[in-house]
Design brief:
Blueprint (H helix, E strand, L loop, with lengths): L10 E6 L5 H10 L3 E6 L2 E6 L1 H10 L5 E10 L3 H9 L12 E7 L8 H18 L6 E2 L6 E8 L2 E7 L21 H10 L11 E4 L6 H10 L4 H5 L11 H17 L6 E6 L2 H14 L5 E5 L13 E4 L10 H18 L4 E6 L14 E7 L2 E9 L2 H4 L19 H24 L3 E6 L7 E6 L2 E7 L7 H23 L6 E6 L17 E6 L2 E6 L13 H9 L5 E5 L5 H8 L4 E6 L2 H14 L6 E5 L2 H7 L4 E6 L4 E3 L6 E3 H14 L1 E11 L8 H6 E5 L17 E7 L2
Parallel strand pairs: 5-6, 5-7, 9-10, 9-12, 10-11, 12-13, 18-19, 22-23, 22-25, 23-24, 25-28
Antiparallel strand pairs: 1-3, 1-4, 2-3, 4-8, 7-8, 13-15, 14-15, 16-17, 17-18, 20-21, 26-27, 28-30, 29-30
């Protein structure tokens, strides 16, 4: 097609958006003055003048880019691609002193690599400049003066330039964000679908009870105050030579006038979240957007959130169960959200955005409308509900007098599981109290069909699910997991007043490669626990392990009682909990070795918490085998507690403890002072100590004595030996 002139024939524009937003964007384009508007996949095309293009850049809340189309042609191969790109008069759109970048999408049978497509278009541009005797423009991937888009759909190339210069979804206020953030454009679309701003209500009240970093509420206020996204973005346009500064300034003044007219909006906006850190993010994001004074922020968990004003629209994006073990937690959250809506949002419109629409049934509220959308590449739905008696309660005509709001009784199997938890609290809980223990194992697959390990860490509960056999479907495993979690929450609440927010659920399975120590997406909460005279930092969510191995409590106690005046070596020290006990027991010096910087930083925090002198008690980041091979010190007490297998990218040494234990033990024995002791332990279930060691050294199996009452059901949780030189 011929290239349009900006001051003559109408411009051909293609306005891009996320999939699912096309119909909403079509209306925005029409409102801004677009003609011959037509929806396409992930965008809308139209005819418009330059002023309309500028109004789209300023006012559109849904678009990502405004593309000025310069050429279209069928393409099959690289030659077709080059000819189409060369048909554009590029010096008309780009001066030799400017920079360019090319983005490409789509493919044909022969053009199946977007990087090659972009390179071929770039070649056509610079070759044209050379043929015309002009210096070639430079390529810049960061902030180019002209961004060229090449898109192939159904063997047809559309070639254009980005008039906005950067993605319009970036409002530049969302610098801080929590888990699973929404793009600003998607947040605006959700609000539009929910009917916001509700002009028929004199003083509408918008609320998000789990607001995260606040994007939904910030976009809601921007819409209510008629603040154009282009004013918030405050970024310049592309350096296109035909930019009309006067027309752009007229659009800017129009946006400012609209903002002034809507400044007396009388609505109310409330954001709440249980995480005070993300509320801080939200508050600062709102301030950057210029709407901080219009939103009231609250640090409040859902169960304790009682709004002082009845909302007219409740909108939220509940957490997703990104990890397998989170599913039961999130499903319970949906139930809690339904109960909260029944109590505090009667008469309101509710919009819940979810990647699991089937979980909407857990709300116990009928949705009158659903919209299929995407959160990035993830399919999702927006569920719209009106909260009233007809939607909340099932009709008696259906023959069901029960309300979904009533808690469902536990089924017989889950009731048996709950009863076992109560019994263990009476026995193990009493024993732990007598021993002065706040960290202990409460349940360890006592009932095989409920294969969980449940540990108490003070007022926090760590629930790990053993991986289900292959014969058990994921659907059945998920149902059992949800039932067990509900029962645990019920028992902990009634017996120990521990809320569900203090219960962490994980699926425990063998990790592969670098995933073994990779942190999860959830940062979790660090908190302090006590063990005897020691204090430790634990975190139940951040890593696979918590920072404190409960099964080794008796070994640590023995070290505390026998470390006075000792020189102590702790190999594979993890978070150095054994070293802390040695230091508190009077060890005159210690060395703790681990390859993980994360664990050594954790160890340093444990040292500081217990007043352990870091000069007297050293932390060493090293592969333990390399440390032993190079060590010339002597130690009176050595604790060797290696993993079953370790393959770290930080070292060439691959540890297989069954294969390598003789080598490690011999190196440790070479470092023992006369009369010294090596405590060797590992948790390999089928481990067998090499017979030659018992011939060379004095070996005492202390496994039974190293396992406390709370681990008595699982006597092979670890094996422990005391090894001394023969006299």
């Amino acid at each position: 097609m011929n290239q349009p002139s900006h001051n003559a024939a109408p411009l051909s524009l293609f306005i891009t958006c996320a999939k699912g937003l096309e119909s909403l964007l079509e209306q925005e384009v029409r409102d801004c003055g677009g003609q011959h508007v037509r929806q396409s996949v992930a965008g809308v095309s139209c005819q418009a003048d330059l002023g309309t293009a500028y109004r789209l850049i300023m006012f559109s809340r849904l678009s990502n880019r405004v593309i000025l189309l310069l050429a279209e042609a069928p393409v099959q191969d690289a030659d077709d691609l080059y000819r189409c790109a060369d048909s554009v008069d590029w010096p008309h759109h780009l001066s030799p002193s400017q920079t360019l970048s090319v983005s490409a999408a789509g493919s044909t049978e022969q053009l199946n690599h977007t990087q090659f497509i972009a390179q071929r278009v770039k070649d056509a541009v610079v070759d044209q400049f050379r043929r015309k005797g002009l210096p070639r423009p430079s390529v810049s991937r960061e902030a180019p003066d002209l961004l060229i888009h090449a898109v192939i759909r159904k063997n047809r190339l559309s070639l254009g330039i980005d008039l906005s210069g950067a993605s319009l979804h970036r409002r530049h206020y969302r610098i801080e964000q929590g888990d699973a953030p929404l793009k600003e454009t998607l947040a605006a679309a959700l609000l539009m679908r929910a009917g916001w701003p509700q002009t028929a209500i004199a003083e509408p009240c918008l609320m998000d009870p789990m607001c995260g970093a606040g994007t939904l509420l910030i976009e809601g206020v921007l819409m209510a105050l008629d603040i154009a996204p282009g004013l918030v973005r405050d970024s310049g346009l592309t350096a296109w030579p035909h930019h009309d500064a006067a027309q752009w300034q007229a659009v800017v003044e129009e946006a400012k006038t609209r903002r002034r007219k809507a400044a007396d909006w009388k609505g109310c906006v409330i954001g709440a979240d249980a995480d005070d850190q993300v509320i801080g993010f939200a508050r600062r994001n709102a301030e950057r957007a210029g709407v901080g004074t219009f939103i009231r922020w609250q640090v409040a968990a859902l169960a304790s959130n009682t709004p002082d004003k009845a909302p007219s629209l409740v909108i939220c994006n509940p957490p997703y169960a990104e990890r397998l073990g989170e599913q039961a937690e999130v499903e319970l959250l949906y139930k809690a959200l339904g109960e909260w809506l029944r109590q505090h949002a009667m008469g309101a419109t509710v919009a819940v955005f979810t990647a699991k629409p089937e979980w909407g049934k857990l709300l116990g509220i009928h949705s009158h409308k659903q919209y299929a959308l995407y959160n990035g590449a993830l399919p999702a739905k927006l569920l719209l509900m009106q909260i009233n008696e007809d939607t909340v309660y099932r009709r008696k005509a259906a023959g069901d007098k029960a309300s979904p709001a009533e808690p469902r009784p536990l089924d017989p199997g889950t009731q048996m599981f709950a009863n076992r938890l109560r019994k263990n609290l009476r026995t193990l809980g009493k024993w732990a109290a007598q021993q002065g223990l706040e960290c202990y194992r409460l349940y360890d697959a006592d009932m095989p069909e409920y294969a969980f390990a449940i540990d108490c860490y003070g007022k926090h509960i760590h629930m790990q699910e053993y991986r289900a056999p292959a014969s058990v479907s994921e659907e059945d495993a998920a149902q059992r997991r949800r039932q067990a979690y509900e029962a645990l929450c019920l028992v902990m609440q009634e017996s120990l007043q521990i809320p569900p927010s203090h219960i962490t659920l994980k699926v425990r399975e063998r990790q592969k490669g670098k995933e073994q120590y990779r942190p999860s997406e959830k940062a979790g909460e660090d908190f302090e626990v006590h063990e005897g005279k020691a204090r430790f930092v634990v975190n139940l969510e951040r890593y696979l392990d918590t920072g404190l191995f409960l099964d080794h409590r008796p070994v640590r106690q023995w070290i505390y009682e026998h470390s006075r005046d000792c020189r102590f070596l702790n190999l594979f020290c993890y978070t150095a909990t054994a070293t802390v006990h040695a230091a508190l027991g009077g060890a005159k010096s210690s060395t703790s070795v681990d390859l993980s910087r994360t664990y050594l930083q954790w160890s340093a925090r444990n040292f500081a918490l217990n007043g352990v002198d870091p000069y007297q008690h050293k932390l060493v980041q090293s592969d333990c085998l390399e440390f032993l091979q190079g060590c010339r010190q002597e130690f009176d007490l050595i604790f060797l507690d290696p993993p079953t297998f370790s393959n770290s990218k930080s070292t060439e040494n691959v540890l297989d403890i069954q294969r390598d234990h003789v080598r490690y033990i011999e190196l440790c024995m070479a470092r023992l002072a006369p009369g010294g002791l090596l405590i060797f332990s590992n948790n390999h279930r089928r481990f067998r100590l090499d017979d030659t060691l018992m011939e060379r050294y004095q070996v005492e199996d202390r496994s039974a004595a190293s396992i406390d009452k709370d681990f008595a059901r699982n006597t092979r949780i670890h094996r422990t030996w005391f090894i001394r030189p023969r006299s």
